[in-house]
Structures are given as structure tokens and as C-alpha cells.
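cron nightly-structures :: item 1 of 1
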Amino acid sequence: MSDNQSPEDRVAELVGLLNVVTAELVDVIGEVVRTGAWEGFGIRSPEHWVVWRCGVSPGRARRLVRIARALDALPPTSSQFRAGSSSTRDGGCRVPGCAQVRWLHIHHLRHWTRGGRTDPGNLFALCPAHHRMVH
């Protein structure tokens, strides 16, 4: 991070870093769930293991495990996200005139809660600022 960056740009960059680390954490939690590495004396569930090992709240642990399990059900999408192919395909933020090419968010054209699919044809890249504008 540069000292010349505005606070808004620094926040966006830090959120991008958090997203990258969270994606890696979800991958590792998925491996722990798949392999049963969470099982041990006194551990009641993968969520309980995440609370214990990560020091997060039970609600956060449930969300992390739920996402890890969901990614297993979406192998083409999760492998594309890991490879960064969605942002590479788009070449940066899709808003005309925006030059942001790093720390992009992937946005559903038709939101998943309204029946939109999580596949490349329904996804596109937005920079954090433009993604906030959409929501």
C-alpha cells in the first residue's frame, strides 16, 4: 500500500486482501471437513472445531463451514475463482472508464436469491467502489 492512497482506496485494498485470505481459509476449512480432520476428543462438529481453532464466533464458524461445503457443490465455479479466470475474462472492472484491475468483486447479473445461477455467464467483475454502488 502506498502512503499516497486515499483512505477509500486503502480500505478497498484491505478488503481485497481480507477476501483473498478468507477464500484461502474457506478452502482449508473445506479440506478439514472433507477429510474429517476436525474430529477429535470433545469436538462436536466442524463448526465447533472452527470456533476452537480460529477463535471466531459460532455464527461466523457456521457461515465459513457452510461456504466451504457449498464450494464443493460448485466445482467449476470455485476452480474458476481460484484461478482468477472471472476477473481475467473481464479484464478489470466492467464499468466503462474504470481502470481498476485488482481486488475485484464478482457480481451476479441476476442475483442468486432471485434464481440467478453462479456460473460464468451470470457473473462479472466490479471494483469495490462500483460494487458498493450496485448494492
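cron nightly-structures :: done
The longest helix spans residues 7-35.
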